[in-house]
Amino acid sequence: MSNIIKVSAGGIAQFLIGTSSWIFLMRIMSEFGSEVLAGYTIAIRVIMFSLMPSWGMSNAAATLVGQNLGANKPDRAEESVWKTGKYNAIFMFSISLIYLFFAEDIILSFNSTPQVVEYGTLCLQIIAAGYVFYAYGMVLTQAFNGAGDTNTPTKINFLIFWVLQLPFAYIMAITFKFGAVGVFLAISIAEVLLTIVSYILFKKGKWKEIKV
Q1: What whole-number distance in Å separates Cα of residue 43 and Cα of residue 32?
Q2: What is the DSSP letter of 176?
Q3: Residue 21 CB: number of other CB atoms within 10 A?
Q4: CA distances in angstroms from 103 to 42, 71, 121, 136, 191, listed in the order given
Q5: d(CA 171, CA 165)
Q6: Per-residue pLDDT at 11 exceeds 90
Q7: What are the residues whose beta carbons fall under 8 Å from the beta carbon of 53, sequence distance 6 or more?
Q8: Which tens digit of pLDDT belongs to each residue from 176-195?
Q9: What are phi and psi of 177, to 5 degrees?
Q10: Cβ atoms of residues 153 and 144 within 8 Å
C-alpha cells in the first residue's frame, strides 16, 4: 500500500501542477477582454482534442518501459521510448502543419467574430510551432512514470510550468505588453524546454535503476 501511495502521489502532483498552470494562464488571458479569451479558449479546446492520440502513444511508451524493465531489458525499454517518440513526432508534425495553414478556417468553424478568430488563429499557430518538441517531451515524461519514477516528471513539470512558464507569460504579456501573444509564446517555449530537460535527465539513465 505504501508503494502504491508513493508512486501515485507523483502522478497526482503532475496532474495538479499541469491543470493549475492552465488556470493561471487563463487568468492572465482574461486581462485582454472576452473576445481574446474566447479565441484562446477555442484554440486550447482544439489543441486538447488533437493531443488525444499523442497521449495514447505516450501511455503506450510508459507501458513498454514498465514491461521491459520488469523483464530486465533496460536497453529495449529505452529503444521503445525513442521509437514511440519518433512516431509521435511524425503525428504531431502533421497536426502542426494543419494548424499553421488552416488555423483560421478551424477557428471560423466555431466563431466568426473577427477578434476571436484573430487570436484563436495566433494561438493555434504559435503553440503548434512547438508540437514536434512536445511530442518527444510527452513520451519522455511518461517513460519516467512507466519506470516508477514519478518524482522526476513532477519536478520537471514544476520547474517548467510554475517556475518558468507562468512568470514568463506574465512578464511577456503584462510587463512587456506583448498581450495574448506573450502567453502563446510562453506556452510554446515551455513545450521546448520540457523536452530538453526531459531528454537530459532521461539520457542519464537513472530511471533504469528504479525499484518499485
Answers
A1: 16
A2: S
A3: 20
A4: 11, 45, 5, 23, 19
A5: 10
A6: no
A7: 91
A8: 999 999 999 999 999 999 99
A9: 60, 40
A10: yes
CA-wise closest residue to 194 among 66, 10, 13, 14: 14
For residue 188, give the amino acid letter. Answer: S
- Helix (H/G/I), strand (E/B), else coil: 61: helix
Rounded to whole angstroms, how far apart are CA atoms 143 and 210? Answer: 12
| Residues listed for the chain | 212
Count of CB atoms within 10 A of residue 115's CB?
15
pLDDT: is 202 or 18 the higher one? 202
pLDDT exceeds cutoff 80 at 212: no
Mean pLDDT of 113-124: 97
d(CA 128, CA 151): 28
Q: Distances from the Cα of 144 to the Cαs of 16, 81, 191, in angstroms?
A: 18, 10, 17
Closest CA to 132 of 64, 194, 46, 48: 194
Instruction: Write the single-letter amino acid at 101.
Output: F
